[in-house]
Write a structure and sequence with these properties.
The chain is mainly α. It has helices spanning about 20-25, 50-55, 60-85, 95-100; strands at about 10-15, 40, 90. The longest helix is centred in the last third of the chain and has 24 residues, at about 60-85.
Length: about 100
């Protein structure tokens, strides 16, 4: 089994407006896959729900699709790099408590 690279100082509270990324994309804890995320690795792209909320207007589905296309690619790249380096991108409370 590979060793997980973990340093609690490299994580921040995960705050995505209305948990949009969990609801829309089915993301979860990188270790147990629980759909409850409390922490995210520093250096992450802006959470997509927060990005949409910051537009401060009603968007059409087409506008949302265009707005989130690049951020989705950035999140995927971020996750791929973390996976290669055996760093969990997202952690739930339970896994966080086990890691610290």
């Amino acid at each position: 089994m590979s060793k997980i690279n973990f340093d609690k100082d490299n994580y921040l509270q995960f705050d995505d407006y209305n948990d949009l990324m969990i609801q829309a994309f089915g993301i979860g804890c990188s270790l147990c896959y629980e759909p409850q995320i409390s922490f995210v690795l520093k250096g992450h792209p802006k959470p997509i729900g927060t990005l949409i909320k910051q537009q401060n207007k009603n968007l059409t589905d087409q506008e949302v699709d265009k707005l989130i296309q690049k951020p989705i690619e950035e999140w995927q790249k971020f996750e791929d790099i973390n996976f290669e380096n055996q760093k969990p991108t997202f952690l739930c409370d339970e896994c966080w408590n086990q890691m610290i």
